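Retro notes - structure team

What went well: the batch runner handled both jobs without manual restarts.
What didn't: labels got mixed up in the shared folder, which is why I'm recording both outputs here explicitly, each with its sequence directly above its tokens.

Job 1
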Amino acid sequence: MRCRCCDKNLSDYESTIKSSITNEYLDTCISCLKVIDIHYVGRPDLEEEVNPIYQKEEDYDKDF
């Protein structure tokens, strides 16, 4: 699936994004959504793909 605005390939998370008002799929990438300032919701289990956790607690160096 591709973004309606910029024609970029959508990630799995971006493909699940819906308008928080109309509950319709937006088919728009995160970059374009930030520019047009639309409130949206997506699947939380796929959000890590867009907002990765850079260092999980178990990955911290415990030998400071």
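Job 2
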Amino acid sequence: MMSLITRRDACVAGVTLVVTFALGAVVRPQATILRSTAYDWNAMSVRKTAVGESRQVLRSPTATLDELELHVTTLNPGQTSHAPHQHPNEELIIVREGTVEVLVQGQWTRLGPGSVVFNASNESHAIRNVGTGPTTYHVINWTSPGMKK
């Protein structure tokens, strides 16, 4: 015996589908909060770039930040990673080796190993290798709660 779908059954099925799709669009899985972790330099993947190479160490939310990102860039002599730019997140650059010039508050400043640069939110900045060998630096970016909206 064949049963017919009533108008009421069709409406209930339609509403159920709409609610299911709406929840799927709104409810996103929470990214895992970064816990204490150690990263071995020799185990990091190296990505060759047009100006040197890069190692992506981490990019994750933490207990206090929407995102913490750390990468290590090596620039070949005479190269710059990109043109002066700005972004809402703040960042630290720690020079590991080589000689760089950094653009800070409209001034180019020469720095060597161990030097640290703080790039404030929405201020133009840049970095270039002015030495005769490769330069390597660590970049630490963080996105404070609510900035990703």
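One thing worth noting from job 2: Strands lie at 47-48, 52-60, 67-75, 90-97, 100-104, 107-111, 116-119, 125-129, 135-143.
We'll revisit the folder naming next retro.
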